[in-house]
């Protein structure tokens, strides 16, 4: 299955995708609290940081762009500061914003979360969510008619914010080219029956709402939903129904095929939101790339899992998705992957630490060095000499462990975030791409003896020489292993004599 998913992701192209739906600005006010205010039993937050992200249908658009799609976003925002922030964020990710209607009639929907440490204490919502006016509806239909026929796929992301009206649904029915994939995510999927969608994605609450059932807890959900695929297909008139159910995983229902279940997505972050938007974006890209719906489902679930490991409103990039389906997701296959990952890390303002070496036989000294290196920043990238590079440096009897084995061992260390290999004697090209904030080496080196030091300094980084754990070296370990062998060999030779 992993191999099939990888092959589909390799086929991702800049498909032309239209996302229509409700835009939300997700805001995070982050700080700390150590006291209550005098006038009420409420915590006082000392604000340290403020962030904003695209939410709702805007997050779906950003996820598509991150996966390589050429994305257009059709929505309505207020002609206000929140709308400008939303549009700026969309443009920074490459989403086309020329279809956005800005109006004085409405205010942009914004959801502000007040946080103390890792805890969300309060959320405030503002903005207009009623149906758009007839004038704005006419403008939406006009913009839709200009682009719909040229799209490879269409996504309707209905958060109940007033953009997806009955008139817009009817316009899509009239203008959509036969065979154009249509993916729908809505709190009320029955509204879209006339469109006969390619796929619809209800969450658990929406699924039981469609079926007119009471919600149940835990694994009981699996039995409750598994046998009702045909009814869901009948109720939505969709070709496929992807019902996501949090800790119970997800079900895919198709006409003429048995239910297909994807197991639970690991959830490491209870505050992450937007995984459903990511799911929709990844499914669409996979489907446009020729994936069977079951393979598309696996890829979409993996993308959602990636987002659930992040904080706040998350998105998934193509390189993250590719890495997920590799045997070792920490390993960056080539310099192009490294360049993409570097861009992501820099954009997220991560402090990057880089070190390199053979790491042929991993020992306590290596582990200690890597742990201390990680403490110098947010992300530790380790450069590994290739097997041929080690042979040039150490002789034909090295390496003891192949590059594949060394990658597997180092990837098991929590201190190591990413690994990249190089054929040269020195990782100068990697340093030029990575532009690490800190370059770390052990104390067997000095700055003036490091050919990499001038490159690091020229790129604005610093070089740190860290002390090594005493008595540990790969060469010493190899000699220690060989000594008993040599003694046995000499003893046998004496006996023969």
Structure overview:
It is a single chain. By secondary structure, the protein is of the alpha/beta class. It folds into 2 domains: 2-324, Ribokinase (UDP-N-acetylmuramoyl-L-alanine:D-glutamate ligase), CATH 3.40.1190.20; 335-479, Rossmann fold (3-Layer(aba) Sandwich). Helix content is 39%, strand content 22%. The protein contains 18 helices and 19 strands. The protein has helices at 2-10, 57-66, 81-92, 134-147, 166-175, 204-211, 220-226, 229-236, 275-288, 293-308, 318-324, 335-347, 364-374, 387-394, 403-411, 428-434, 453-458, 474-496; strands at 16-21, 23-32, 46-56, 70-74, 76-78, 101-103, 110-116, 119-126, 153-158, 182-186, 199-200, 240-244, 250-254, 260-262, 352-357, 379-385, 418-422, 438-442, 462-466. Helix 17 (453-458) links the parallel strand 18 (438-442) and strand 19. Helix 2 packs across helix 9 and helix 9 (275-288) packs antiparallel against helix 10 (293-308). This is D-glycero-beta-D-manno-heptose 1-phosphate adenylyltransferase. Keywords: ATP-binding, Carbohydrate metabolism, Kinase, Multifunctional enzyme, Nucleotide-binding, Nucleotidyltransferase, Transferase.
